[in-house]
Specification:
Layout (H helix, E strand, L loop, with lengths): L1 E7 L27 H4 L14 E7 L27 E12 L2 E13 L4 E5 L6 H9 L6 E7 L2 E2 L2 H7 E4 L11 H12 L6 H14 L15 H13 L5 E5 L7 H16 L3 E5 L5 H4 L4 E6 L2 E6 L4 H7 L10 H7 L3 H11 L10 H16 L24 H18 L1 H21 L10 H39 L5 H11 L1 H18 L6 H28 L2 H20 L10 H7 L3 H14 L20 H7 L7 H27 L6 H11 L1
Parallel strand pairs: 5-10, 5-11, 8-9, 9-10
Antiparallel strand pairs: 1-2, 3-4, 3-6, 6-7, 11-12
Helix pairs in contact: 4-5, 4-6, 6-7, 13-16, 14-17, 15-18, 15-19, 15-21, 17-18, 18-19, 18-21, 18-23, 19-21, 21-23
């Protein structure tokens, strides 16, 4: 059987042969070469298909065409982790999503081959499917996909592929309160693991700084970097472990023309060092367009061009669209698009099966790819991961304990540098404590005003709830974006991040929470008993811990604007259940008792009241002129509130259980969002259910 492919004009007597790369010692000089004698072994005639520079060749399928991947070897990086080169192929790739209007097909059976050592640009008008193709190839989207994705001719192992690839998203998601050198150092410690010693990691960081031209701002805080510097830092963070595959989504967005030229030049240099660099870009200038080695164009989910930028104008001329020399080909191809043109271009390029190349080296690799696409026969290529990568390290480069310690140190450093936030938190707790203490000044032992003391308990609980629930609700959505980038790029496990994030907030909660409780407790003249004070303080801190867990759950589930509305709506019924039965505690219905047990605020309020009024407290003081002081015995107040006979230990257990539940739920919600963003499908399923 035979198969056809497109390539640049060359001698008509070239035939079948093996295409092999040089061995490891020659990687710097020759990554994929063959001798002239090998080229001339066969003399099968290859027919012309067009008068243009492009010729069509036939290749026998009886002899396998192999290409041994070479190692990425950067001369400028002497301290680096060894990585194999990776070629990416995809065949008959279809991607459809469910929307409220029905199923929508984003990609329609496209084919392609992205070669190592080349900078590939995915282009197309809005809605063409550029980002979808990028997300699928990077593994960011893994559901609702049909077709085949290969690495070096073999089915992709996603777990190992994630270790060898990095995805740099359009938005520069960075740690603002770290310096450039600190950001890179933490990234190196997380991503390289045991492959290099600490000294080599530091040297690798310095070399990456020099390579990307950000060494001059090594001690500058990230939040003070320019747009171009932030983009370079984003690339540098993913380059520290020397990945052979780099995906970039719209890397030039938001940059000026000078920064765009520098960015594309950087990507060209990275590709020339042996990497597979793939990016999406929206209508570059003519000079930038010709800087790319390979262009893959999409329109309405179909491939309309696949090959060298130099071959685009001749290709368009073949189908009747002549681009003037003064016109930018990248603009022209999309200006002439209409329904008929898209169909014609897709048919001519066979939806990506045909690759238009410039030189012999590209043609050689195009042969293997074209054979895969045109004949649907897999070629046996060496698996990219065999003997190239320690499979024991496929999970994560560093251990859980190492990840946890590094993340804890990083988050602690950022938290301590947020001086504005710390001062705001200090004044918030201090001012609120003084205000609350003034309102309820001296009521702690007043038997004539027991319900004022009950209101004091409610106020303390509400303060801790809203103080600690709103912070994560407003800040965690942006944290999830950064987490998605680092987690997807295989920096660390979700467990290590979650544990470090939970522990980081505890010191400030304990410090400022204790300050608040200390002030209000003594200003309100509560009993000077160490046990009661300790129990009351512990209840307040446990309430803050549980509320923060609820905030993390909400913040990880929805956007901050939605969370700001949702949080009060969720807390209102919880607070109503917490205070239900005030004044007729003995008559609370069993069904209401069960409902009240679903509110963590009930456990907090019962715990606070029990610590102040229970545990055998002596009679409270009553005014002499009062003939009758009903609540002189504090147990009567607990009885009328429906809180008599409650163990404070059970309240601690209830709060701890809710806190653990909220955090576990938040963990699994975050995990769902990290895995194909499954939460977005819930509203669609709900609407379908309502429609029947």
């Amino acid at each position: 059987s035979t198969v056809s492919f497109a390539a640049t004009t060359m001698n008509d007597n070239r035939g079948n042969r093996d295409i092999r790369g040089g061995d490891d010692d020659d990687d710097d000089n020759n990554s994929s070469t063959c001798s002239t004698e090998d080229v001339q072994q066969d003399e099968e005639e290859m027919p012309l298909v067009d008068a243009s520079r492009t010729r069509m060749f036939s290749v026998s399928a009886d002899r396998p065409i192999t290409r041994i991947p070479t190692r990425v070897d950067m001369k400028t990086l002497t301290h680096k982790a060894k990585r194999p080169a990776v070629d990416i192929e995809f065949h008959d790739l279809t991607y459809a999503v469910n929307t409220t209007a029905g199923q929508r097909t984003i990609l329609k059976g496209v084919h392609g081959f992205f070669r190592s050592g080349h900078l590939t640009a995915i282009m197309g008008p809005s809605g063409a499917g550029k980002s979808s193709l990028m997300n699928i190839l990077a593994g960011y989207v893994r559901t609702d996909i049909k077709g085949q994705i290969l690495t070096n001719g073999h089915p992709r192992n996603m777990q190992l592929f994630k270790k060898l690839s990095s995805y740099i998203m359009q938005e520069d998601l960075l740690q603002p309160r770290l310096t450039v050198i600190e950001s890179l150092s933490y990234a190196a410690r997380l991503k390289i693991g045991r492959e290099l010693s600490k000294e080599d990691k530091d040297k690798a960081v310095d070399e990456v700084l020099e390579l990307l031209g950000v060494s001059v701002c090594r001690n500058t805080y990230v939040e003070k970097l320019s747009g171009g510097q932030r983009k370079r830092l984003s690339v540098a963070l993913e380059l520290v472990n020397n990945p052979p595959v780099i995906f970039l989504d719209e890397p030039t967005t938001g940059l000026d023309i000078v920064a765009i030229k520098q960015c594309v030049t950087l990507l060209v240099d990275l590709a020339k060092q042996g990497r597979t660099v793939v990016c999406t870009i929206h209508q570059p200038t003519s000079s930038l367009f010709h800087m790319f080695d390979h262009v893959y164009m999409l329109a309405r989910g179909s491939c309309i061009y696949n090959g060298s930028p130099k071959q685009l104008v001749p290709f368009l001329a073949q189908v009747g669209h002549v681009c003037k020399p003064t016109h930018n080909p990248a603009d022209f191809v999309f200006e002439v698009l209409d329904n008929d043109t898209i169909v014609n271009l897709t048919r001519e390029i066979q939806n990506g099966k045909v690759i238009l190349c410039d030189d012999l080296d590209e043609m050689e690799n195009g042969m293997a790819t074209s054979k895969l696409c045109r004949n649907d026969t897999l070629i046996t290529l060496p698996p990219v991961f065999d003997d190239e990568l320690d499979k024991s390290e496929a999970e994560y480069p560093s251990s859980f304990c190492t990840q946890f310690s590094i993340l804890l140190a990083r988050k602690t450093k950022q938290f301590s540098r947020n001086t504005t936030g710390l001062w705001i938190s200090f004044f918030h707790h201090t001012f609120s404590a003084l205000l609350l203490g003034s309102i309820y000044y001296g009521i702690g032992s007043d038997g004539n005003r027991p319900f004022e003391n009950f209101k004091f308990c409610i106020s303390v609980i509400v303060f801790f709830v809203y103080t600690h629930v709103m912070g994560p609700v407003l800040t965690f959505p942006s944290e999830v974006k950064l987490l998605r980038r680092e987690y997807f790029n295989h920096w660390y496990s979700l467990k290590s991040y979650f544990f470090a994030s939970t522990i980081t907030s505890l010191p400030s909660m304990l410090l400022f929470g204790s300050l608040f409780l200390l002030i209000v407790y003594f200003m309100s003249a509560q009993p000077i008993e160490w046990i009661r004070f300790s129990e009351f303080m512990a209840i307040g801190l446990f309430t803050g811990y549980t509320s923060e867990g609820l905030g993390v759950l909400i913040g990880s589930s929805v956007k901050n604007s939605t969370g700001a509305v949702m949080t009060p709506a969720l807390l209102a019924p919880m607070l109503a259940l917490a205070v239900y039965g005030m004044g007729y505690g003995l008559a609370i219905e069993p069904i209401m008792e069960s409902l009240m047990a679903t509110s963590f605020l009930r456990y907090a309020l019962v715990g606070a009241c029990t610590s102040l009024f229970g545990n055998g407290r002596a009679d409270m003081d009553c005014q002499i002129d009062e003939l009758y002081c009903h609540y002189k015995n504090p147990n009567l107040l607990l009885r009328d509130l429906g809180m008599s006979g409650r163990s404070i230990v059970n309240q601690f257990i209830g709060l701890a259980t809710f806190g653990l539940f909220f955090r576990l739920a938040a963990y699994y919600v975050i995990k769902l969002r990290m895995m194909n963003q499954s939460l977005r499908k819930i509203p669609l399923y709900f609407k379908k259910f309502l429609r029947g």
